[in-house]
Amino acid sequence: MFVHLQGPWNPVWGRLSLQAIPYQNPILLGTFTFAMIAALAIVGAVVYFRAGPYLWREWFTTVDHKKIGVMYCLLGLVMLFRGFADALMIRTQQAIAVGPHSPGYLGALHGYLTPFHIGQVYTAHGLIMVVFAATPLLVGIMNIVVPLQIGARDMAYPYLNALGFWLTAAAGALVMLSLFVGNFAHGGWYGFLPLFELPYSPGVGVDYWMWAFQLSAVGTTMGSINLIATIVKMRAPGMTWMRMPIFTWASLSTNLIALTSFPVLMVSLALIGLDRYFGTHFYTAGQGGNLMLYNDLFWVWGHPEVYFLILPAFGMMSEIIPTFSEKTLFGYATMVVASFAIGGVSWGVWLHHFFTMAAEPSVNSFYSVTTMLVGIPTGVKVFNWIFTMYRGRVRFELPMLWALLALFLLLVGGMTGMMNAFATSDYMWHNGVFVVAHFHMMVLLIAASIFGGVEYWFPKVFGFKLEQRWGKWFFWFMVLGTAWVFVPMFILGFAGMTRRLDYIPVTQWAPYLRVMLVGMAFYVMALGFFVAHLYVSLRDRVKNRVGADPWGTTRNLEWMTHSPVPAYNFAYIPHVHARDEWAWRKEHGMASLGNESFEDIHMPRNTGVPVLLGGLAFVLCFALVWRIWWLAAAGLGAVVLVIILRSFARDTDEVIPAKTVAGVEGGAQDALPAPARG
Amino acid sequence: MTHAVENPLHHPEVHQASLPGYVASFVITIGIMTAALWLTEKGSLSAQSLVGWTSLLALIAILIQAYWLLHMNWSKAQVWHTVAMVLFIPLFVVMIGLTMWMFHGLYQRTAITMPSGMRTAPAMHAATGGVATTTKEAAKAA
């Protein structure tokens, strides 16, 4: 039944053997040592502080949307660090391996990475940054903020929420494990067919890529179902559609995209799986298969995915800019329409990723026009943000700085995106680094929005503000790094440099590559400032303690409740009177009104089932990667069994007594320094 | 947050269940699929008519299953399911329609065939007998 394999296999260990551990590679050995030291430090700290039971009770088994959101953000940050390390390797390799006389180290003819190794680094960098860094960070922020913004006590499906997170974490762990056991795909993050077919990629790298991608897609789809259901069904009384905060609108649009597009990704990956495991021919050029079908299916997901990432980023900008302009958002209704217009158009642009496929001119023209159409709603948003700032009292605090950087990067990325929308031009620079520089502008705008969003909502989640001094160093060195890396990359794109090169044959490109390396040095320094930013903020957390509304000019419901937010979010469900409810209450002198008496609050109970299912899914995928059939069968059986057993669980809820609520509400006020009390 | 439902049988979605509806939809859709199979196996229709008839039968089967199995209706309990389904249709048409359009032109312009390297690849054990692997064979088969 299974396809014939090249290389050894046995029924007990499948393809796994000691040779799969790359202990002879000094880079991976160093990485392994670093990872082990970090892991030992974390485990040691947990044991020393006896934090194990607390972590299990309060975090690993939690179904609280805020804690799950924080864990998503931590996962995203760890993977962002890994993706950045990959970027550093790519840039250093390209700066060294220029021309035939360039030196070679560690077994490489030029530079220090062999073509196979740098292929893995490129693939891992792309996949990690898109799927395991940006996506978890954005999903994490949506998880935290959306229920608070709509006045809900949790997500519609708290258990599903935890399950989605642990499946995503399992997928991330699978990518990380490929560093030390086996290898990763080496043909690019979005996969190439038929290169990714078994005869041409006979190792386990593609299998790691495929199963990690698949698992994360399942997790993200679950998250999107949850967020849509939460927004549609759980808004506070009085919160009509047109009173909904703009970030929630953006989240709704983005999750509709996710719900409709991620299943296509799952199918496209499943078909690769059938080709690789059962010898079918979905993507081979003969026997009824079609290798372009993969490109088609993948980018049917891939381009909506771009807007899945960018719409929450736009939503965060739309929250930050009014707060720090001390004005209401300009053009609320047009913002909503623009968000959905972008979401809608996202479904009709995907062929622009393969204009060079040789489709008919009319087909390419159609996709050129639809791609350019994206500029209209995006332009509406840009003008709305500018008009929001116009004649406002603009305060350049850290969240605002990040939002403004995002706005600038959007203009650069948007304009170059319009250039790429021309199919004729794309024939010139397809798979060139001009395109790479363009999409890095877009993902960096997403990163800038994320940093802005984290700065903005951090006090709400943790109850203290992040300090500003090191944060500004971090910000400005990120600006420097971005300019020094990507301006030369645009120039090299025009010079004709193609992407994913392990060796640079044109020596005239060397100066630009070295300038980019300086940019990477700025990024490394920015990372140091980021660590200092977090350290100083944690050290001074008591001094920087804040009340419900730390920025003073916030506008939505999330700023009504305490900072940090209690487990139940709101002691009583607020009634919404207007758009920007919190600003409306402050204007009408109703900011401090609240119930004196409290009621019991019904909440979901923590459970260890999601983390168990995440672990079992990890085992299942690991076994499938290495074709250890008995383990895969056991893993799948265990997953099914646990799901069935969980469906019989009746004790899934708990009640927080009114007395406890009263205590928390009183305590939250007492804990504040006098000026911060609401 | 989940709402407390003590008895799952009281859930409005569960109240949509109907044994006669399930049996009817099952029997009718089996009949429709058998008819589609019979039409395909008989091979007396032209390719275009065959696609038309099987598409029509598939549409009827989908409508029957949507109504009796998935309970797509405008009741308060089901309206969001129905809205989601209706909104999905244009998306499906756009995706399949555009894909067909791009591949239709692509095949005409490139006459994609199996590269010779793939025919000798290790995993390709099966003979390619009966399948057109060159432009000439494809044209002959057409």
Protein model, in words:
- The complex is a heterodimer of chains A (678) and B (142).
- Chain A is built from 20 helices and two strands.
- Chain A is mostly helical and 678 residues long.
- Chain A has a single domain, classed as Cytochrome c oxidase-like, subunit I domain (Cytochrome C Oxidase, Chain A, Up-down Bundle), CATH 1.20.210.
- Chain A has a two-stranded antiparallel sheet with strand order 1-2.
- In chain A, helix 4 (115-149) runs antiparallel to helix 5 and helix 5 (158-177) runs parallel beside helix 18.
- The longest helix of chain A is centred in the first third of the chain and has 35 residues, at 115-149.
- The model of chain A is unreliable at 674-678 (pLDDT under 50).
- Chain B is an all-alpha fold and 142 residues long.
- Chain B has two domains: 10-71; 79-114 and 129-142, no CATH class.
- Helices cover 63% and strands 0% of the residues of chain B.
- Chain B has helices at residues 19-42, 47-69, 79-110, 116-119, 135-141.
- Chain B is flat.
- The model of chain B is unreliable at 114-138 (pLDDT under 50).
- Chain A binds chain B through residues 3-4, 6, 152-159, 194, 197-200, 232, 234, 260, 264, 279, 284-288, 290, 292-293, 296, 300, 347-348, 351, 357-360, 362-363, 366, 602-604, 652-653, and chain B through 1-2, 4, 80, 88, 91, 94-95, 98-99, 101-103, 105-106, 108-110, 112-115, 118-119, 121-126, 128, 131, 133.
